[in-house]
Specification:
Structural class: alpha+beta
Shape: globular
Protein name: Mannosylglycerate hydrolase MGH1-like glycoside hydrolase domain-containing protein
Helix content: 25-40%
Organism: Pestalotiopsis fici (strain W106-1 / CGMCC3.15140)
GO molecular function: catalytic activity
CATH architecture of the largest domain: Alpha/alpha barrel
CATH topology of the largest domain: Glycosyltransferase
Keywords: Signal
CATH class of the largest domain: Mainly Alpha
Radius of gyration: 26 Å
Largest sheet: 8 strands, antiparallel
Distance between the termini: 38 Å
Low-confidence stretches: 1-14
Number of domains: 2
Pfam families: MGH1-like_GH
Number of strands: 25
């Protein structure tokens, strides 16, 4: 029945009206501290009997928040590394290899600006959507399946086609009708193909191949384009891209499935002294599961044995994670590349466990268990394995090199679970998914294009309870609850609630569907800051401080649109300008020069608190503007108390000035670190739910 009818019937006691079971304020303050206002109204709240999965779910929400870079009037983008790396795309530091993961994580955030402005950016002139192989179009489509906003997704149709045709123009073999790519551009340097094509000498370059990855991405992108075209009634485009997808589906199965290995593997595109065009590579790789990540293979028992390889510790299953290559490979875990400045190992895909491909395997397995009835019917792999792999994946977030705190890095030793690369750039790396795997797989919300809510949990029988709330699905508030005994939430079984009304239930973990209406999703107020500066190149706005010789990169940090409250002291994580240690009396200042008269009316300030590093909020602060050749405090100021590891709000009567500054007094024995300072030309206030 439609969700609108549920509420009517509930009035007469004809359906069960649910009461929220989670204390979202308690969870928000527990996991996010003083920064909880950003999360409280935006994220789905979740808990399960597996505490590790619960804790990592909220850590991954912090990762998502940390990587939302404010780019001013154009909204936000998701970054991969916290700080700049040499191969990013200027001016905003974007990289396309993990964009699909970013969008899929973001599709569950109730504030659509993050995924929508990011998708718009990636299809715009300041990004390079083809810097790496990509599945952006299909990720955008998957976002639409959650929020149901037609106008958002249809606006990308032309850009989706442009990018697809560009891939066809330079990475498509017309004789084979398949796509090829070098492993380095596939974001997976040092694969079997690249190492063997170099005759075992290297593998950073080389190895251009017809890979399961890019062909699966392009299959899914083609279907996404066809689906979006169908929404706008463009049958010719829909038919053309459906035909492309059908061709790729057949050819991937015909040509990349290797009956000896019982796995999808590469075939060489480029010939070298040690590689020949169209020859298959000589081993299995974890990338061979990407066809299922994108629902490409036919549903038959022939392919079921591919999943036995992640059950075998002699093949792709390590003690602590999934290997990218099997130990039998001649160059398994041979370290070729090192960071020149530290001597630390660099990234390779010849055996290490990567969250990137673990995410893809979890999605592939979720698809298999959800709707590949014949393949799953072979009983090679089960829901128990899905939950166990999700749990193992969660465990690696607890970093043994950092006192087992939650610090996700780049790649891992599949036997020990320890990070391999471990560079300054590595902590809190956003190159994978987890939120999406919990919500679409473990909880089982299978987003659809029609107005049906479908839930098919993949949680195993040892999970005694879970509940998720605040899921925004087609504009409706959705909760899903499982309680194996009724002792946790008071009702035994699986329950679905829509807009606080119970609409479906089962005594077992099984598939449930319910018709729902499509409502307009909520919108968040958005005012773009006037203080954001992408590059530290002297362009306005520009920051400065009262300390001679201060690190200009750290000064720029404070106005570069990045914001997080991680407290590691490494250079890349220690974001923002840090003052000298205070004496309790001496004032310091941080200045923004706009280069021209600019209206200023309010600001948001992020102060770090890290007592172990002698960093604390200031004793006091004020905002000054340079008016009539003098610094004066702004008129009628309203200053919030300086908040540790949260957002401090300040407002005043709007004024026009070229220069503004934040004047503050550090506490005695402590420095002040200003992670982020945003200035607005109008009054910006916090409208989020207040937790007492």
């Amino acid at each position: 029945m439609p969700a609108t009818l549920h509420s009517v019937l509930a009035t007469f006691g004809l359906v069960h009206v649910a009461a929220a079971a989670l204390d979202t304020c308690a969870l928000a303050t527990q996991y996010f501290g003083n920064d909880y206002p950003w999360y409280i109204d935006r994220i789905p709240f979740f808990e399960t009997s597996d505490q590790t999965i619960t804790d990592v779910y909220y850590y991954r929400q912090k990762i998502y928040r940390a990587h939302q870079r404010d780019i001013g009037a154009d909204g936000f983008i998701s970054t991969e590394f916290l700080d700049d790396v040499s191969w990013q795309v200027a001016p905003w530091g974007s990289l396309s290899d993990a964009t699909a993961f970013h969008l899929l994580e973001g599709r569950w955030n109730r504030d659509r600006i993050f995924k929508e402005s990011y998708a718009t950016f990636m299809y715009g002139s300041q990004a390079n959507p083809r810097g790496f192989s990509e599945a952006i179009a299909t990720a955008v489509w998957q976002g639409y399946l959650v929020d149901g906003v037609v106008d958002d997704v249809t606006g990308y149709l032309d850009s989706m086609q442009t990018v697809y045709l560009e891939w066809e123009s330079d990475h498509y073999d017309t004789s084979k009708q398949m796509f090829w790519i070098a492993p380095i551009q596939d974001a997976t340097e040092y694969t079997i193909a690249s190492i063997d094509a170099s005759c075992g000498v290297d593998g950073f370059q080389y190895g251009e191949s017809f890979r399961p990855s890019i062909n699966s991405y392009q299959y899914a992108n083609a279907l996404a384009i066809a689906n979006v075209a169908a929404l706008v009634g463009d049958t010719s485009v829909a038919e053309a891209y459906n035909a492309r997808a059908a061709t790729l589906k057949d050819l991937v199965q015909d040509n990349l499935w290797n009956s000896t290995f019982e796995h999808f593997i590469d075939r060489y595109y480029a010939t070298t002294d040690c590689a020949t065009y169209w020859d298959p590579i000589r081993g299995r790789e974890l990338v061979g599961y990407t066809p299922w990540t994108h629902d490409l293979p036919d549903d038959n028992a022939t392919y079921a044995n591919a999943f036995s390889h992640i059950l075998d510790e002699n093949l792709l299953l390590g003690q602590s994670g999934l290997r990218t290559v099997e130990p039998s490979y001649e160059y398994y875990m041979v370290q070729y590349r090192y960071d020149s400045s530290t001597g630390q190992p660099e990234c390779q895909w010849n055996g290490p466990s990567w969250p990137y491909q673990t995410t893809q395997v979890l999605t592939a397995l979720a698809n298999l268990l959800d709707h590949y009835n014949n393949t799953a019917g072979a009983s090679v792999i089960t829901k128990w394995h899905y939950t166990n792999y999700l749990r193992s994946y969660a465990i690696i977030h607890y970093n043994p090199n950092r006192d087992y705190t939650l610090v996700l890095e780049e790649d891992y030793n599949a036997e020990t679970g320890a990070p391999i690369v471990g560079l300054s750039r590595s902590p809190h790396y956003f190159h994978s998914g987890f939120i999406d795997q919990v919500l679409s797989g473990f909880v089982g919300i299978r987003a659809r294009g029609d107005d049906v809510l479908e839930v098919n949990p993949l949680a195993s029988e040892d999970i005694t309870y879970f509940r998720v709330e605040n899921v925004l699905y087609h504009g409706n508030d959705v909760s899903v609850q499982w309680d194996s005994t009724g002792e946790k939430y008071g009702t035994q079984g699986l329950i679905i609630e829509v807009n606080n009304v119970q609409v479906a239930s089962s005594s077992t973990l099984t598939r449930l569907t319910v018709n729902v209406g499509r409502l307009s999703p909520p919108t968040w107020p958005r005012t773009a800051p006037v203080s954001i500066q992408a590059q530290n190149d002297g362009s306005y706005p520009v920051g400065s401080v009262d300390v001679d010789g201060a690190d200009t990169n750290k000064i720029h940090d404070t106005i570069d649109g990045r914001l997080w409250f991680f407290t590691e002291s490494t250079y890349d994580v220690a974001h923002g300008y840090q003052s000298p240690v205070g004496d309790g009396a001496t004032e310091h200042w941080f200045q923004i020069d706009f280069g021209t008269a600019t209206t200023v009316a309010s600001s948001e300030i992020a102060f770090l608190d890290a007592s172990d590093q002698a960093i604390a909020v200031p004793l006091d602060y004020r905002i000054e503007a340079y008016i009539n050749d003098a610094w004066v405090e702004v008129t009628s100021p309203a200053y919030d108390a300086a908040l540790a590891n949260g957002i401090t709000h300040a407002s005043w009567t709007a004024t026009s000035a070229n220069l503004v500054r934040l004047v503050y007094t550090p506490q005695s024995g402590f420095a002040v670190r200003i992670i982020d300072w945003k200035v607005y030309d109008t009054l910006v206030t916090d409208t989020s739910t207040v937790c007492s």
